[in-house]
Amino acid sequence: MNTPNTKTSKVPCPNCGTELIWDKQNSFRPFCSANCKNNDLVAWANEEHAIPGEPMEDVFSDDLERGI
Ligand SMILES: [Zn+2]
């Protein structure tokens, strides 16, 4: 089903349930924020590899700049 590109739709953040506007420029989607995106990846990473709590912000800011 095609959706008009001018329409905005809201989706719940998988991490915290907050509704967010689905936007192509939202690099966090489907999460509401960098925090939720980080939390999800950290949880995933901890489960997979049990890595120490390394800050991932550098990786994400780099990703944001290329994400558009
Ligand atoms: Zn969230």
Automatic annotation (TrEMBL):
Alphabetically ordered keywords of this record: Metal-binding, Zinc
Source organism (scientific name): Zhongshania aliphaticivorans
Entry's family note: Belongs to the DNA gyrase inhibitor YacG family.
GO molecular function annotation: DNA topoisomerase type II (double strand cut, ATP-hydrolyzing) inhibitor activity; zinc ion binding
Name of the gene this protein is made from: yacG
Protein name: DNA gyrase inhibitor YacG
Cofactor details (free text): Binds 1 zinc ion.
Purpose: Inhibits all the catalytic activities of DNA gyrase by preventing its interaction with DNA. Acts by binding directly to the C-terminal domain of GyrB, which probably disrupts DNA binding by the gyrase.
InterPro entries attached to this UniProt entry: DNA_gyrase_inhibitor_YacG, Znf_NHR/GATA
Lineage, broadest ranks: Bacteria, Pseudomonadati, Pseudomonadota, Gammaproteobacteria, Cellvibrionales
Subunit structure of this chain's protein: Interacts with GyrB.
